[in-house]
Design brief:
The chain is mainly alpha-helical. Helices cover 71% and strands 0% of the residues. Helix 2 packs across helix 7, helix 3 crosses helix 4 and helix 11 crosses helix 16. The longest helix has 36 residues. It is globular, with a radius of gyration of 24 Å.
Length: 490
């Protein structure tokens, strides 16, 4: 069930009324039951598989917590992490692995063919189906297992709370990727709160506009240049990439808004996953604002274990590139995602090299002088240049993120780089307008408080009721055929 469907609305209203009607001690079991039913509505077989993986994670978490020696703790942690990664590899990366073998085997540098054609014909792209939300729940399971190993959780695993933590349906399908500290302590004190109800309704409505009115309507205009880049001129290809940045932001942050809003309505708070990423001033700033829970996960469970910045400058730069390349691979079993992740790691390293070089050239006194207060106009121009630079790099990476494969990505890059002629897309003006609107939502998101909190308390529910009416009119008027969220495929 998509959050934007009538069937989900009926499902949520029913569970919401029951949830707040039953005694408090039954709310967690009820929440677990409806979360299992929500996932099973997609696939009963994969729901059984999912529950088995959570049960295995719970088993190892208990063993790690109860282990008497560091060696035993480590053995159980390694076994649990490897099982989760093996499960992810089988369903998500096995086909990519076979494709890499085939590509290497048919490289012109090698004359002897080991696998020949049978390998590629057997490993069709439809040979394995990816279970819904596998990447998200795998990372969440690994995080809690490793946190138990690191002694960052000082309470024994409790089955009901553990299962609800992994299976909680609003964030189950596409995040945010929760950590123990984000969620577990709330499960013992679930109570209705007026401010949570108001924020929840506001976020659901905001997410609905982003997803249905903007993101879903951009699909038709973006698809033609990405599918046939050689048929369109340079401007149309470039504008299609801009349109995709608007789509992916509104789609994913819209889902996160709705997930957080639904959780608020159930008395629970989820972490923020987007903080106005398109207003970032640098690549480093961008990754504290875009998909925040993934960024922090990659930092804590890949970058720091690799050595972080503790083993010299060169090793630090290599760790950054490895971390982001693996982050790209997490998004999908395709060369394009690997290139996308590698590029963002490279951007961060280059930015750091430039900063270090300028500090050496200018010296501390020049840097201190440059940081003195400037006029409003100078600050505004510098801010605009910083935002434009960061957004331009993000847009360049988005070309690879959305491309069907490397052939299409290079064709689009060639069209833009050579300013090649071709037909002009009829969607150009629309895509540009929606991109500007996406920046408007970044401005809304950049505020320290949700806009609804600026409305006097006694008028909030009335304001939300009026807003709900107009938003449902917009949805009914402008909603295309229901489209799955982009991040469902990850």
């Amino acid at each position: 069930m998509l959050f934007t469907t009538i069937s989900f609305l009926v499902f949520f209203i029913g569970l919401y009324l029951v949830f707040w009607s039953i005694p408090g001690r039954w709310r967690l079991p009820y929440l677990l039951l409806v979360s299992i039913l929500f996932y099973a509505a997609w696939s009963v077989l994969f729901a059984v598989h999912f529950l088995a993986m959570v049960a295995i994670g719970y088993y190892f978490a208990r063993r790690i917590y109860a282990a008497k020696s560091p060696q035993s703790k480590k053995r159980n942690m390694v076994a649990a992490v490897l099982l989760n990664l093996a499960n992810l590899f089988l369903f998500k990366y096995f086909y990519l692995f076979l494709t890499i073998l085939y590509d290497l085997d048919h490289n012109p540098l090698f004359t002897k063919k080991v696998f020949d054609g049978w390998l590629y014909s057997w490993s069709g792209s439809d040979s394995l189906v990816l279970p819904l939300a596998m990447s998200f729940y795998t990372f969440q399971l690994i995080a809690i297992i490793v946190d138990y190993y690191r002694n960052q959780i000082d309470e024994p695993p409790q089955a009901l709370r553990f299962f609800v933590f992994i299976l909680f349906f609003p964030q189950l399908i596409a995040g945010p990727i929760m950590r123990h500290s984000d969620f577990m302590q709330q499960l013992d004190t679930i109570q209705p709160r007026r401010e949570y109800g108001q924020q929840g309704l506001y976020l659901v409505l905001l997410g609905l506009i982003k997803k249905v009115v903007i993101a879903d309507n951009l699909i038709a205009g973006i698809a033609p240049p990405f599918h046939q880049p050689e048929s369109f001129n340079a401007a149309s290809n470039a504008i299609a990439i801009l349109g995709f940045t608007a789509q992916v932001y509104c789609d994913f942050s819209g889902y996160t808004d709705m997930a957080r809003g639904l959780a608020f309505l159930l008395g629970l708070k989820l972490p923020r996953n987007f903080v106005a990423p398109y207003l970032s001033r640098s690549c480093r700033d961008l990754w504290t604002r875009w998909h925040v829970t993934l960024s922090t996960w990659l930092r804590d469970y890949i970058y720091i274990p690799l050595g972080g910045n503790r083993r010299g400058v060169l090793r630090n730069h290599l760790n950054v590139i490895i971390t982001f390349t693996l982050g790209g691979l997490w998004h999908g079993a395709n060369y394009t995602y690997v290139i996308w992740g590698f590029l963002h790691g490279l951007f961060l390293v280059m930015e750091r090299l430039v900063e270090d070089g300028l500090q050496k050239i200018r010296g501390p006194q020049a840097i201190a002088a440059a940081e003195q207060p400037r006029s409003r106009w100078v600050r505004g121009i510098l801010l605009l240049l910083q935002i434009s630079y960061t957004y331009a790099l993000f847009t360049f990476g988005a070309l690879f993120f959305r491309a069907l494969d490397m052939t299409h990505a290079m064709a689009m890059l060639f069209q833009i780089g050579t300013w090649a002629p071709g037909q002009t897309s009829e969607w150009n003006e629309y895509l540009l307008g929606m991109t500007v609107l996406a920046f408007g939502f970044n401005w809304i998101q950049n505020r320290k408080q949700d806009l609804i909190l600026f409305v006097p308390d006694k008028w909030r529910y009335g304001t939300l009721a009026v807003a709900s009416f107009f938003i449902w009119v917009l949805v009914g008027r402008y909603a295309p055929a229901g489209a799955a969220y982009i991040y469902f495929q990850f």
